[in-house]
Amino acid sequence: MNLTGKMEPCDTFFGVCLRRFRAGPPRVAIILTAIWLIGCVWYVSNNIGWAALWTFLPHELGGFCAGVFAPPAFVWILVAYIRRSADFTETAGHIRQGMSRLTCADEESSDRVEAISEALTKQAAALTAATDRAAEQAQQCATF
């Protein structure tokens, strides 16, 4: 909601969640990354051994590193995608608000248009009256 209490286009439940999500690094992604890395350290310590890890062939070590770092990388790519979506949602909301301000005249603008139209109506009536008087005077001059 804005300061006047009106709902903004991006004030849906999902929009609020996205706005909070965009505020800083999501705690869930940080926690998942930490849990994953701790689990990998535990796995190497209990099943492989740190000394044996350095005896891996290059392709085995590369596969191990890919297995360790690919899931957190995927999580952070997902975080970046959601944050970008939140930015787009907020920008679209601002654009919608701007368009509604352009299409829906406020009270002050309506009053101003009404005052201008009244002034133009009065000027048109005055011009018509002046034209009629001038036509009458021209006819009086023509009859003499």
Topology:
Elements: H1 13-23, H2 27-48, H3 50-53, H4 58-103, H5 107-143
Q: Overview of this structure, please?
A:
The chain contains 5 helices and no strands. The chain is an all-alpha fold. It has 2 domains: 1-104; 107-144. It starts with 12 loop residues before the first helix and ends with a helix. The model is unreliable at 1-5 and 7-11 (pLDDT under 50).
Quick structural gist:
This protein has 144 residues and is mainly alpha-helical. The chain contains five helices and no strands. Helix 1 packs across helix 4 (58-103).
The count of strands amounts to 0
Instruction: Work out the strand percent.
Output: under 5%
Q: Enumerate how many helices there are, as a single number.
A: 5
- Unreliable spans are 1-5, 7-11
What structural class should be given to the helix and strand makeup? Answer: mainly alpha
Report the helical percentage. over 70%
Count of the separate structural domains: 2
- Please, what is the oligomeric state? single chain
Order of helix and strand elements from N to C terminus: HHHHH
Overall geometric form: rod-shaped
Overall residue-averaged pLDDT value? 82
The major β-sheet equals: none
**Rg for CA atoms:** 36 Å
Cα end-to-end separation: 77 Å
